[in-house]
Amino acid sequence: MCGIYLSNIPYADEEVKAKLNSISFRGPDYIGIEKVNDITFGHLRLSILDLEQRSNQPMVFENLTIVFNGEIYNYKTIKKELLDLNYFFKTESDTEVLLIGFKHWGKAILDKINGMFAFSIYNADTNTLFSARDRLGVKPFYYYWEDGKFEICSQIKPLLAGKKINDEAISIYLDCMFIPSPYTIVETVFKLPPGNYMEIDLNNSTLNIGEYWNLKPVKILDISYEDAKKELHTLLLDAVKIRLQSDVPIGSFLSGGIDSALVSSIAAKVSESKINTFSIGFDNPEYDESKIAEQYAKILNTTHKTTICKPSDILKLIPKLTDVYDEPFADSSALPSLLLNSVTKQYVTVALSGDGGDESFIGYEHFDSLMQNKKIMDIPFILRKFIAHSGILKLFGMDSHRIKNALNTKGRNDFIENIFSRKGFLLMEKKQNYMKYYQDYKYWSSNFLQKAADLNIKLWLENDSNVKVDRASMAYSVEVRSPFLDYRIVEYARSLPMHFKYEKGRQKKILRDILKDYIPEEVFNQPKRGFAVPIGDWMRNELKEEFLEALNDDFLNKVPNLNVPRFKRLLQEHMEHKEDHTANVWKLYVLSKWYSEFGFK
């Protein structure tokens, strides 16, 4: 787990070092800078496999130079194949396997590797650069390209100088609380989408982006539930096992949820030593899952650490939030994620997590909402619109926002997309259409819930969940590995009949039934609380002055496309306990801190 940087812009050595130092938390163990022809390579190493200097980067093999961030979990299998082809290795690292594998197979190596990665390989003989990002976008990849000049980096901060704010991206952020790929906060920097590769030919100054993996239509398996459960369990066992490969201490995050409980259970079973588990708790019982996690830890016989999160802890983390999340990012669960990783680093350098389980196995609350509204969406739109505005709903006591929203939405796909809006439309003068990059989800499945799950995987998982985990863990030089993000599990889950995953409101059915092999059902069968913080209450009380100071008129009037009078009304309603506008207030607060941190006017 590291940070990469490379460019053919002739920066001075001091400038390159300053860029790397600005994100040095990604790799504190070694900073490597090398020049090959006109290209400067920079690398920040967090040592996980083969801790010796021989595995430092940039790494060279014959005419190829690589900088690589991530882990190739099946590197030992690929290494054996290359050894049989008479290649020799100088290290025990996955970096060398990736580099030599590219030498032999070219971009076809992407179909062979299983991991989380973002890398660039330069061929000095052909003066070409090949880069790629993992299938699900676990590792970040930013790039600038203009007139044959390029910069590539693991984070956007080193690329921000001299750039102009992307007004369209700001509007998208106001809508969905993150900035999805390929957009970034500035106009001339982009994100390489997951499952994509990028080829730069420096001889003729051309850039080409291609796709090597994506979700696709699948044939639903004709399989019994018991056989499906057995096959999935086998896949999970292997996904966890290959993620336990490490030359540094390893542990597991453990909340009160199904996903982290199952990952930790399997890790405790297959690990050769007793595992460490970590959880965050809150004083507010509405948000606290720590007591459930402690029950799990006792059953699994792990060495467990619970950290209670207080408002004062959050206030201290806000500067860290804007420093390491160097694009505006308004998922408030990033705050406890930062705290969790700060504690975890005191004990281990690698941690397993349950991220990805909700997307593939229908775990989020909005899936229930979609099913509740499915019958409403079957009514012809003209009739639904009449019902919504006729007063009939009030007559039967059904005048809820949820029902009216369903009645007023034209089609099922529109209703699915609305779940990502988070009422951001309230903030904007004019709504932006960012969904043009995510339309394929409509054609991958005919099942209503699977369509929503696919959009979750392509939009939410990459741009929210993975960003949250990567930045929070890297802020403290911790590597997080998520077995549910193994592409084999994602593909297998999509091939299962929907009632194996979701049945009569029972979310993640098949995962729950596998978990029964490790933890009694009465222990884990409790309401889901998620990994949220009571930020809405804090901004009315402990953090009120901080918020009101940040959300001043001078800042608000600078935000493109913001309906300032409407937002000020929402802010007042929230502070006076008339309505809960936590999400929208938090978005603007985070944006204010970002403007201040990076000096954008």
Automatic annotation (TrEMBL):
Q: List ligand-binding residues for L-glutamine.
A: 94
| GO process terms (BP) | asparagine biosynthetic process
Group of enzyme by EC: ligase
Spell out the PROSITE patterns in the cross-references: GATASE_TYPE_2
Q: Which residues bind ATP?
A: 280, 353-354
Q: Where is this site: Important for beta-aspartyl-AMP intermediate formation?
A: 355
Q: Which pathway does the UniProt entry assign to this protein?
A: Amino-acid biosynthesis; L-asparagine biosynthesis; L-asparagine from L-aspartate (L-Gln route): step 1/1
Q: Is Amino-acid biosynthesis among the key words of this record?
A: yes
Keyword ATP-binding among UniProt keywords: yes
Domain Glutamine amidotransferase type-2 stretches: 2-203
Q: Which InterPro entries match?
A: Asn_synth_AEB, Asn_synthase, ASN_synthetase/amidase, AsnB_N, GATase_2_dom, Ntn_hydrolases_N, Rossmann-like_a/b/a_fold
| Source species, domain of life | Bacteria
EC number(s) per entry: 6.3.5.4
One GO MF annotation is: asparagine synthase (glutamine-hydrolyzing) activity
Q: Which GO terms describe its cellular component?
A: cytosol
Q: Which reaction does this enzyme catalyse, per its entry?
A: L-aspartate + L-glutamine + ATP + H2O = L-asparagine + L-glutamate + AMP + diphosphate + H(+)
Keywords from UniProt, A to Z, are: Amino-acid biosynthesis, Asparagine biosynthesis, ATP-binding, Glutamine amidotransferase, Ligase, Nucleotide-binding
Tell me which PANTHER family the record gives. ASPARAGINE SYNTHETASE, ASPARAGINE SYNTHETASE (GLUTAMINE-HYDROLYZING)
> Which family is this protein grouped under?
Belongs to the asparagine synthetase family.
Q: What is this protein called?
A: asparagine synthase (glutamine-hydrolyzing)
State the organism named in the record. Winogradskyella psychrotolerans RS-3
Lineage here is:
Bacteria, Pseudomonadati, Bacteroidota, Flavobacteriia, Flavobacteriales
